[in-house]
Amino acid sequence: NMVPGERAEFLAGIADVLEPGEHLLLGVGLVTDPAVLVPAYDDAAGVTAQFNLNVLRVLNGQLDADFPLDAFRHIALWDAGNEWIEMRLEAQRALSVRVAALDLDVEFARGEQMRTEISAKFTLPGITGELAAAGFEVERTWSDPDDRFALVCATRS
């Protein structure tokens, strides 16, 4: 999941290694009702929350940090302006975290949030435009019956 500038660079990189006439098959999540999208990233079983909190586990293990996992809660929200789901971790209390490998101390206020991930969603005209800008022409699209996911077949121009 990339912000638009990173996506443009990524798609252009793919175009650079393809010959004209070669194909790219791309799967994309589609913009849909936030009442459907948000619960998909904040499931009742807490699987996504554990996945998100794993970011802190990795920082603790790889960078000798001391994030207390129980001091953060998972948040998923829809950012309509950017057409993506944001995953965040919110500090449940004021705390100080040491990241020893970076010689860094980070202060968190209660309620302060940090973005850990985005999951971009697309409209078909939007992804068609992004692909065109990278040197592709969309030949065909397929989507599920609820228009939540699409496959896009594009040809290198």
TrEMBL record:
<dbReference type="GO" id="GO:0008168">
    <property type="term" value="F:methyltransferase activity"/>
</dbReference>
<keyword id="KW-0808">Transferase</keyword>
<keyword id="KW-0489">Methyltransferase</keyword>
<dbReference type="InterPro" id="IPR029063">
    <property type="entry name" value="SAM-dependent_MTases_sf"/>
</dbReference>
<protein>
    <submittedName>
        <fullName>L-histidine N(Alpha)-methyltransferase</fullName>
    </submittedName>
</protein>
<dbReference type="InterPro" id="IPR051128">
    <property type="entry name" value="EgtD_Methyltrsf_superfamily"/>
</dbReference>
<dbReference type="GO" id="GO:0032259">
    <property type="term" value="P:methylation"/>
</dbReference>
<feature type="domain" description="Histidine-specific methyltransferase SAM-dependent">
    <location>
        <begin position="1"/>
        <end position="155"/>
    </location>
</feature>
<dbReference type="InterPro" id="IPR019257">
    <property type="entry name" value="MeTrfase_dom"/>
</dbReference>
<dbReference type="Pfam" id="PF10017">
    <property type="entry name" value="Methyltransf_33"/>
</dbReference>
